[in-house]
Amino acid sequence: MATHARSALVVGLGIAGMASAIGLRKAGWRVTVIERAPQRRSGGYFIGLFGTGYSAAKRLGVMGDLHTRTPRNSKTWEVTRGGNRHKSVGFLDQPGEPHGVLRGDIEAALFQHLGDVEVRYGTEPTAIVDVKGGAVVTTRKSSTGEERSEQFDLVVGADGLRSTVRRLAFGPHDQFLKPLHAMICAFQLDEQVPYFPENNGIMLVEPRRSLWVFPFEDRPPTALFSYRTRDIDTQFREPTGTVLRRTYGPEPLGDILEHVFAQFDRTENFLFDSVNQVSMRSWRSGRTVLVGDAAWCITLYSGMGASMGLAGGSLLGDLLALNPNDIDAALSTWEDRLRPYLHQHQRTALFNAQIFTPSGPLTHVLRSGVMRLGDRKKPADTPPNALTRYLARPRNVEFVA
Ligand SMILES: Cc1cc2nc3c(=O)[nH]c(=O)nc-3n(C[C@H](O)[C@H](O)[C@H](O)COP(=O)(O)OP(=O)(O)OC[C@H]3O[C@@H](n4cnc5c(N)ncnc54)[C@H](O)[C@@H]3O)c2cc1C
User: In a mutational test of the pocket of ligand 1, which residue from 15, 298, 342 has the highest number of ligand atoms less than 8 Å from its CB?
Assistant: First the structure.
């Protein structure tokens, strides 16, 4: 039996970090979270939360506080910039009856359940050193420059795609980031595109570039530009609006793109980034473990990043609770159990990327065929996989894939 509460440092107050913090707390651990930002973020972009995600959210006890915004009686339209439109299948029409939420909705629900977890904002790790039975982490507070070193039984790196924990404990980013040669820009619209009801989705998909408008039940949609390029560095050298207008030109934009660009010009709050998967042989090194995008970023194209962040954090707590005296065994089992699902989602993301943004004229034509088939067949509920079934079962039951 462990004689004292084990201590963990979680780096990152996103979905994976908070899910891990709640999972560890449920396992009886004392948890501290450090977050680089000066305060908790809100808002974000559209997220489709699938069965694995909401089973994990239920298991973490947060589902009751999750504000979902799945639009009722929603339609999705495939449109051209010339103004043609036809009905198609939307992101939330996929099997499994996903919920539509903002990223911030999931984070807000998780935050309410942190309990006595200590959260330190404006703080980052600067060094991680393995010691017997744990790791000593040096952290730096950005406002004062103050540094402190503390020992923890476990360090959880949940600090996203360009994880500092991964760099400190595993190696440089380029060793693990696998570029998908694509860029995305996501932001919230103030107003739906004219002549479309607020709960309708829109897809304007051309070879190598697309615009998606994701609807909600109770607020205006979010927009996503997604385009392919091999020249990632150049995309960051000019203002984002200039780069996007050039990418979606030189043809006339048409009414829909004009409306979305006009809204983009008015917002300061957007995410513009390259798309990368994270590929690692192992997500643990000594007493440091990576969770969420830091460990396995499966990208937005998989539609499962948030769900797997929730599942990963929840399962981490479960396995540490089942193996209180053997942290290494718990981490090893955790990794073995999750890895097959993450591999599968990373493969699926490569296919889905062609649905989001076809890589050329041929895949654009093939995509149209796939979408038409989808339109004719009413999607059935997916049979839940072993991970989803496990998450729906009582605690203290061993997970066997
Ligand atoms: C446009 C878009 C659409 C998406 N759609 C979906 C979808 O439909 N379904 C789905 O399941 N997933 C979707 N995803 C993926 C999903 O949003 C992510 O997988 C998930 O949010 C990742 O959570 P995370 O906690 O691992 O990382 P992050 O969200 O990146 O959080 C990391 C946290 O760590 C903090 N941090 C970073 N560096 C440091 C540091 N050095 N020190 C301290 N703190 C630090 C950050 O400030 C942040 O708070 C989408 C992603 C995008 C970009």
Answer: 15
| H or E, element range at 212 | strand 209-214
- pLDDT tens string 89-146: 988 988 878 999 999 999 999 999 999 999 999 999 999 999 999 999 999 999 999 9
89 within 8 A of 48, measured Cβ to Cβ: no
Question: For 208-233, how does the pLDDT look when each residue is reduced to its tens digit (9 = 90+)?
Answer: 999 999 999 999 999 999 999 999 99
Residues 6+ positions from 250 with CB-CB distance below 8 Å: none
Q: Which atom of ligand 1 is nearest to the CA of 292?
A: 26
Bridging pattern class, strands 154-157 and 147-152: unpaired
The tokens of 357 are what? 């943004």
Q: Looking at the 3D structure of the chain, how many domains does it have?
A: 1
Cis peptide before 383 (omega within 30 of 0): no
In-domain check, residue 346:
yes
What percentage of residues in the chain have a pLDDT greater than 90?
A: 88
> How far is ligand 1, taken at its centre, from the CA of residue 39, in Å?
16
Ligand 1 pocket by Cβ (under 6 Å): 11-17, 34-37, 45, 47-48, 53, 103, 124, 158-160, 164, 184, 186, 224, 271, 292-294, 300, 303-307, 309
Q: 227 Cβ partners below 8 Å, 6+ apart? A: 182, 183, 208, 209, 210, 247, 248, 357
For the cut 90, the answer to whether the pLDDT of residue 192 exceeds it is: yes
Cα gap 327→259, rounded to integer Å: 53
Does 227 fall in a domain? no
Each residue's pLDDT tens digit, 132-182: 999 999 999 999 999 999 999 999 999 999 999 999 999 999 999 999 999
Look up the domain containing 12 and give its range: 7-68+99-177+277-358+385-391
Rounded-to-integer distance, Cα 315 and Cα 294, Å? 16
212 within domain boundaries? no
Is there a domain that residue 150 lies in? Answer: yes
Q: Which CATH number goes with the domain that contains 146?
A: 3.50.50.60
pLDDT of residue 93: 87
Average pLDDT for the chain:
94
377 pLDDT above the threshold of 50: no
